[in-house]
Amino acid sequence: MLSKDILKRMIVEFHESELPELIEREIGTRIKLDARQIVSIIGIRRSGKTYLMYSLIKKLLEKGVERGRILYIDFEDDRITPFSTADFDRLLDAYFELYPGNVKGELYIFLDEIQNAIGWEKAVRRFHDRLDARIFITGSSSKMLSREIATSLRGRALTYEITPFSFSEILRAKGVRADARTRFSASRFKVMEALRDYLEFGGFPEVALEGDGEIRIRMLRQYLETIVARDLAERFGLRNVPFLRELMRHLVTSAGKYFSASSFYRSSKETFRITKRTVLDYVDHLQDVAFVYLVKRFSLSLKEQAVSPRKVYCADNGFRKAYGFYTMDEMGRALENAAFVELRRRQTFDPLLEIYYWRHDDSEVDFVLKVGNGIEQLIQVCWDMSDAETRKRELGALAKASRELKCNHLLVISWDSKSIEEIGGKKVEVVPMYEWMLEG
Question: Which helix (H) or strand (E) holds 421?
Fold first, then answer.
């Protein structure tokens, strides 16, 4: 049985501590502090869920909410592991013993990494139904939270996803300004330097703000180890950890390429003694913890979508640096993966946005953006548009897809090119990556 003294110590520790320096996250502007629904915040480990909670708490304090009316618990604290269903009642008892005057008052309850608590969904529902409380929860498992929200918490929760820093958030954190004049000013060099760094090391907040390259690699590898041990092996009971590591390495290395579970199974079955079902299940778990994303081919036929190969992208470019295997400079792939990460971030702001790729014969378009019933935009990502053959291939694929999908909003994202091109009667805008990232 968990001691109430330990819970009281944790409650008081938080109330007596100073909040760290915080960088405003873009998703935080969308979260309402007075929402009657439970606010669920999901995202990959180390993406900033805890700091987002801190920023929400800071806003409450600035609005005049007494700190004693805020209850914050981190369920990754080893002092309360394991945390059972009955411990939620002890948590409330401990809090009200410390603050008896708050029994009838409005409360703000923040429960961090809630998936580590047994039976959390029933307890959170009970808190919501019986207390005058605004409740905020975070978790690293999107499927786990989504499943429980859809069953036990249906109609009671709003879900927001947080990703690692966007490029605009990194610039703000580093004090680098960028606006419409940047392309013509000396500040452009700082912006481009920051972008190249972002393509290489990614956007995890602590990594992005660390200056030492060796330390950054060690941090990223530690993140990977924690994802393997805590979010995958422990939570899902995955026993074949050597195979899991090999699969993760393969997926990270393949970012921007096609992934075939059948092919990977055939090449790995003798070494790891696995079944194809193992491959499919492990990939599913890696998507659940937001480590990788698999993008479908766009087709009006759902059956064709299902049977077509999918393209894989990793959640952060830093994983490519820390865990991928490369024999040559692949900045074009890094640019494409970063573009997907940015599109995925925009998807968190627009639930109707869907991301696909398009392919017909030997022509391919990297991203098809569908909103509602219509195709909104077709996007190619190309590092260097100066080569005539490359330009012909990239623009030709866009023109072909434009005719088939009846979409005239065509874009090429490049490293540093800016122009308006024409092909087959279609206009194509070519923009530098940093401009496109900052406009979103």
Answer: strand 419-423
Quick check: 335 and 415 in contact, CB under 8 A? Answer: yes
CA–CA gap between residue 78 and residue 307 (Å, rounded): 44
Distances (CA, A) of 178 to 49, 170, 429: 26, 11, 21
**Contact status, residue 120 vs residue 147, Cβ threshold 8 Å:** no
Sign of CA dihedral 202, 207, 213, 216: negative
Q: Which two tokens stand for residue 345?
A: 């971030």
Note down pLDDT in tens along the chain; length 440 residues: 799 999 999 999 999 999 998 888 999 999 999 989 999 999 999 999 999 999 999 999 999 999 999 999 999 999 999 999 999 999 999 999 999 999 999 999 999 999 889 889 889 999 999 999 999 999 887 665 566 666 667 778 888 999 999 999 999 999 998 876 777 677 888 999 999 999 999 999 999 999 999 999 999 999 999 999 888 998 888 999 999 999 999 999 999 999 999 999 999 999 999 999 999 999 999 998 899 999 999 998 888 888 899 999 999 999 999 988 765 558 899 999 999 999 999 999 998 999 999 999 999 999 999 999 999 999 999 999 999 999 999 999 999 999 999 999 999 999 999 999 999 889 999 999 999 999 87
Assessment of whether the complete model's pTM goes beyond 0.85 = yes
**DSSP assignment of 72-137:** EEETT-GGG-SB-HHHHHHHHHHHHHH-GGGTTS-EEEEEETGGGBTTHHHHHHHHHHHSSEEEEE
Helix (H, G, I), strand (E, B) or coil at 42: strand
Q: Are strands 374-381 and 353-360 parallel, antiparallel or unpaired?
A: unpaired
> Domains along the chain?
4-162 (3.40.50.300)
Single-letter code of the amino acid located at 175:
G
Looking up tokens 């629904």 gives 37
- Rounded distance between C-alpha atoms, residue 320 and residue 253, angstroms: 6
H helices of 115-240, in order, are 120-130, 142-151, 167-174, 187-201, 205-208, 213-226, 235-236
Count Cα atoms within 13 angstroms, Cβ side, for 84: 5
Interhelix angle 187-201/331-349, rounded to 10 degrees, is 90
**Helix then strand then coil, % of the chain, to nearest 5:** 50, 20, 30
